[in-house]
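Trying the structure run again after the queue cleared.
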Amino acid sequence: FGSTGRKVYAWSEHNNAYIETDCPPGRFVLKELPADHAQALPAQNPSLVLAISRDPEAELRRWASDISVASDSAPGQPALRVVAADRSSVATVFLDPQSWLIRRVVADYKLLFASMGRDDISSAVLAIDYTLIRTDAPLADDAFEWSPPPGARELAAVSGEQNRDQQSPLTGRPAPDFALKDLDGRVVRLADLRGSVVLLDFWATWCPPCRASLPGIAAIHKEKSPAGLKVFAINLREDKEKIAQFLRENKLDLPVLMDEDGAAAGAYGITAIPATVLIGKDGVVRTVIVGFEPSMKQTLSRVVEELMK
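Done. Tokens:
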């Protein structure tokens, strides 16, 4: 993701496709960007969002449940304590007292690992020092110029090409059965869905790429479920209240199943999230996509349409 000042672009290494659009004049807010950019940019480069935003405080408050003066703050070294909206991490942000630029970030990820069931991790701290920031550095006119890599195609021109993980051992094999509870306590069994195309999306609230991909999954659910598509977002190891709060805060409407012990993810060989699995009417896995990229919704929609024929 980046901007030349005239264009905003996003390039996916996975399928060598890119999106490019005119840059809004001056600073702007995310909703003024194309939807694919607006969903992906906060997950991939949140600091850039703050740098280009017309209202960085509002953007920061979208991600944070609490912002306060940090106990580490001292004369000549102001600092903020920022609690992530999903409460998976707490960061102390140290600011330059003259320029108010960020100089240091110390993030505590112990809560994140605890939400993953890793209570054995007693400390997980990431410290980043920004020592070379300058606001008056001379820049060449072409400092931020960008051109598509060799062979890259604009996303609008990519038709029929599917972003599939052909290396997945599941592809072409019967999908492992499972019985998982939804947020209301009802049990959903994959075996009962035979005859329908099924989309499974493995995710967690603490995962930024998952948060970027879920709006697209929800849109597919809204568009395709009336025609018979079964969509389930399978949450990994998080409690019902946390999941429900996340869905409310992000205005997401889609069925969620809870993989409380990670057994379903293990059966599907999930080692990274988000991971999206498409299952044909015959119960066979047809596509596995790992990760998130701007073209994901279009790719999934095309594959779903093929499978539902």
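Residues 193 and 230 are 8 Å apart (CA to CA). Worth checking whether this holds up in the mutant runs.
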